[in-house]
Amino acid sequence: MDTRFLEYILVLAETGNMTKAAKKLYVSQPTLSQFLAKHETEIGTPLFERKNGKYSLTPAGELYADYARLVLSLTDKLEKDIHRLGTATHIVVGTSTSSAIRALVHILPDFCKAYPQVELTMTEHRTLRASEAALQNGEVDIVLAAVPSLEPYQGHSIGLWSEEVQLVAPRGHPYALRGRQEAPGVTREEFNRYFQSTPLIQQLPGSCIRCLVDAFLDSQPHVTVCNTNNAQSVCDMVSDNMGVGFVPAGYAEGASRLAAFSLEPKLYRIHALLYRKDLELSPPYQFLIDLTRKYYETRKPENQ
After folding, report:
1. Which is the most buried residue in 220, 272, 278, 287, by most CB within 10 A?
2. What DSSP character marks residue 151?
3. CATH code, residues 162-268
C-alpha cells in the first residue's frame, strides 16, 4: 500500500528542513519540493509555512499530520493482520476438564473451515495446576479449564460460566436418610459431624474441585480412599457405597443411587478460557475465542 506521500509530509514536519527531510527519505531535494508544491495544489491549501528556510505546519498541516499518523498506524495493522491470515499458524490448546474436550470437539469444525491453513493441536492435562504450568512455560497458547477464581488470571482470561460443586453421598447414608436434600446447604461443621468417619473419594490434588474442597474442609483430617480426575468415576464409586465425594452438580442429576447436597457457603467452579500473557490475539486466536464464547453461551444452564 503506497503511503509515501504521507511519510513525506510527516518527515518534513519532523525535520523542518527540506534538505534534511529529502536525505532522510532517500529522495532528491527537487523531487521532494516538487511533490510538496503539487500536493498542496491538489489539497487547495498550504500545509507548511516557509520562513528563513524553516518549514512549520499550518493549522491545516497539523490536521493533515494527525490524520497521516492515524492512516499509517491503521495501514501497518492491516498489513500485519493480512500477513497473519496468509501465514500458516500453529495453535496449541490445552484442556483440563471433560466438558472442555467436548466443547473443542464441537468448535473445531467451524474453526478449521475458517482457517484451514492453521495447524491446531489439542493436549489434555490431568489437573488445573498442570494446565497452568504448561501455559506459563509456553507449551500451550490457550487453555480451557475450570478454575476456583478468575482473580489470579486477570488480564489474560475470559470467564465462560460458573457451575456449582455439590457433595454426593449414597442414598443410604445416615445424613441422606435425614431428608436434608432440601436444606440450605451442608456447612463445614455439619460435614465434620456427619461425615467424619465416611471415606472420601477425591478429585486429584491440583485440580479445581480439589482446591475448592480443600478450602472448604479447612485442613480437617478425613480419610481419602481414592483420587481420580473423573467426576463420573466419583459418582460411580459413591453409588457403590465406597464413600462420599464432590462433583459438578450436573453429574448427580438423575442418579438414582445418589443423594446430592449443596454446601454452605456454596462452591462454584468457573469454566474459563486462559491464554498466555504474551499472546498477541491475532485473527485466528480471536476467532477461536469467539467460537468458544458462543458455544458456552448457548449451552450453559439457565440458572447460571
Report:
1. 272
2. G
3. 3.40.190.290
